[in-house]
Amino acid sequence: MGISFTVLSSGSTGNATVVRNEDTTLMIDAGLSAKRLDELLKERELTGEDLDGILITHEHSDHIKGLGAMARKYNLPVYANEKTWAALGTKSIGQIAEEKRIIMQTGEVREFGSLRVESFGISHDAAEPVAYNFIDGKEKLSVATDLGYMSDKVREAIKDADVMVLESNHDVEMLRMGRYPWNIKRRILSDIGHLSNEAAGAALSELLNGTTKRTYLAHLSLDHNMMELAKMSVRSAMEDRGCFYKDTEFRLCETYYDRPTPWDKVSDS
């Protein structure tokens, strides 16, 4: 079977992704209401009962809004590092049974059946944010958003992925001209904020080595980006750095804030 995945929702209003292989199904983040997550799962012929656990990247509300309700409703284990658990507390997620609160430290590699999950640190204004690699045999999927910037450690972690879900949060000029107060704009533009279209393209120009066949542009700002603009800007940034490709060799793919992506198989890369 190999690895398959669907990005249930991605953007500033909420984030959740499901990754599965022949014996394991995991959700990464639960940033929408439990009711909405159930609806999105149903659209991909799943229910919360199909999940084997939830992996958390960090404690911001667009990544954990429905976490407590989903964990309690379906009796799911939740995996996060120690600092993220401390930042979550109970105010934002309610009570989760102690035996379901599992510490998976940054940099830890854990086996979920035949699915190997690697956690790695990222730069964002949270307690200890992480991203994840999913590996089954020779297949590798990387899910990395809320990056701030593309550090050498992140680049090393995801460089040989077959498929990536990668942040392309904002167009810099749209953000600068937008309605947000300057302190919020400054945070988003900083090294602990979000990756811009240009920065995503620059990163991909260094990462593409023939291994990665598809990249899903993710976590787009509703106020300061558009998918067609993101795709155009990312591709332009890659070409400006001498990275040219044919659509048969590599594709930029879309994610959505209001509907899930189709199931995709990493082995189709």
TrEMBL record:
UniProt cross-references to SMART domains, sorted A to Z: Lactamase_B
Entries under SUPFAM superfamilies matching the protein: Metallo-hydrolase/oxidoreductase
Domain (Metallo-beta-lactamase): residue spans on this chain: 13-192
Pfam families found in the cross-reference section: Lactamase_B_2
Cited InterPro entries: Metallo-B-lactamas, RibonucZ/Hydroxyglut_hydro, WalJ/YycJ-like
Function: Counteracts the endogenous Pycsar antiviral defense system. Phosphodiesterase that enables metal-dependent hydrolysis of host cyclic nucleotide Pycsar defense signals such as cCMP and cUMP.
Catalytic function, reaction form: 3',5'-cyclic CMP + H2O = CMP + H(+); 3',5'-cyclic UMP + H2O = UMP + H(+)
Protein name per UniProt: MBL fold metallo-hydrolase
